[in-house]
């Protein structure tokens, strides 16, 4: 069965985006799936002209130019800067649809076709850049940062779309036990290669973020549909960035550390002098917050030997982690 027109055009776009130089028509005919079946040079020429016109009609910036300074042969490529879209603001429903479409693109059938096209172009000597095309040759299947959490994402997107709360086991780190959380989901976003759920945690009565890789597989919708709505003006990406992003250089946390404890934390900061907390002797240390998620995890690991004094947001994060640890022990 021959290659469909849509598939042929997709293959052509991948090829023209995959090269930093210009590809000749002859190389396109030989290496891009869908053109090799042309019965004659004339038939190929007509097909290729129609396809070029269709790409331009679609607004794709197809360019022509010399293959090299030493080869005057005319070649073709797509201007990647002009092809790229500006930042797009999506509604929750639109974002959910895009996420589902992305999952479809990562399906084995389409991944195999795209990888095969790139491999063939490389074998023919075409300079293919997987970063520009978004196609990683021999890459593991599944969406980046989502390996093992595809089912979780599907249930969450369905619950967000239907306005329904969800219940799931969650742990704040790989070494800590799971605790059951009930959340009103507002949306799912990516940040620094990881996927996060943002919503209202009914158990904590506060806005919380949850990394999908730390959510157990048993995600269960609870309560009636239509009961959960995302509050107006909520910036999901801003919430995630504030929680896990790096704070600007110079933003400091003040932490009380017990005498003889948390040596690594002492070395990382600057002592502000001795201080007593309750009946325990210690000192106050100033520490650059940096990646807040990591600092909160480190401080929580010291238990009662390190107490965040400020900022309040870091203190809340550490308290949340300690509470999760305690509940995990109680449940066990």
From TrEMBL:
The lineage of its organism: Bacteria, Bacillati, Actinomycetota, Actinomycetes, Mycobacteriales. Residues 251-324 form the WCX domain. Signal peptide: none annotated. Residues 152-216 form the WYL domain. This is YafY family transcriptional regulator. Pfam families: WCX (PF25583), WYL (PF13280). It comes from the Bacteria.
